[in-house]
Amino acid sequence: MHRALAPDGTQVWLVTRYEDVRKALADPRLSLDKARSNGGYKGFSLPPALDANLLNMDPPAHTRLRRIVAKGFTPRRIERLRPRVRVIAEELLDALDGREEVDLLAAYCAPLPIIVICELLGVDAADRPDFRSWTDGLLAPATPQHARDSLGSLYRFILDLIAAKRAAPGEDMLSALIQLRDEEDRLSEDELTSAAFLVLFAGYENTMHLLGNGLVALLTRPDALIAARAELTPAVVDELLRFDPPPQLAIRRFPVTDVEIGGVTIPAGETVMLSLVSAHHDAARFPDPDRLDPGRTDNPHLGFGHGPHYCLGASLARMEVEAGIAVLLHRFPHLALAVAEEDLEWRDSFRNRGLRALPVTLRQIGECHP
């Protein structure tokens, strides 16, 4: 347990050990509701129409809304998407044939999840905006005004999208949520807008950097890359999630009563931050934690959380990473970084770790198979 300062000057309690983080993630005494803060927490200043999302709720409101949104993320429905995700990946890589060097983040890691999440929500290809610039503006803004502009653009896009779906509903997830709002009154207008915001934001942002961070980890470790080329098993994906997860911290928590964590009593209302990346490199839980081990089987990582707030989109993100990396390594068997690892540029964000760019050489030589 550490007393720490966030970049904005907020005083927080930082939890770093695996067992403490895991228990805290499922502890009902640690609230996600910002109303439980004693006033020290700043964070994002979201409008009410975007703030009524699962990351700001406790049961029973959280339980009710989660059941509604979860219908769009059942494992069976996600698995049916796998062939389509592979087709999207192949089409994106078709555009790279003949090129020797490319920014893989811009050309592949970002557009793959954008296309997938937009198809889930029923966004036409011609209407897909620049989500990457907006999410970068929220998580790693150049200025406070940059953050406000990015949020405003994303908010207006969601409002326009909901209006368009109301006028012409389809078979997509957003149309189904609108029906639950308009015909069955099972969620409020703010909850509808906030759900669309969370699916767009989280479904794109984390998957993009799961792909980017995972590829860097593989391309800088030849043994792990050989294993991944041979077979990209779920165990390999789990190890990538453990080794270098984009979310460095879980969503902040506020004790509803004084709570003891790691031998330290945290007063009610103070801000608690749970370090996922530290927990994942805790030698007390993961032997040789700083080694990327594709054969690691005892791997209860927390990359998708734990407990009642476990990530709804975990199955989708895992499937996209499995399919996205497998297709890429099959198509370009000689894929390599175009710069030294130490020359890669990372975004300035303490919340989410992600690259600014991923320059690679493709060097497709003949027909190769994994």
Automatic annotation (TrEMBL):
Keywords from the named record: Heme, Iron, Metal-binding, Monooxygenase, Oxidoreductase
PROSITE patterns named among the record's database cross-references: CYTOCHROME_P450
Membership in a protein family: Belongs to the cytochrome P450 family.
Name of the protein in question: Cytochrome P450
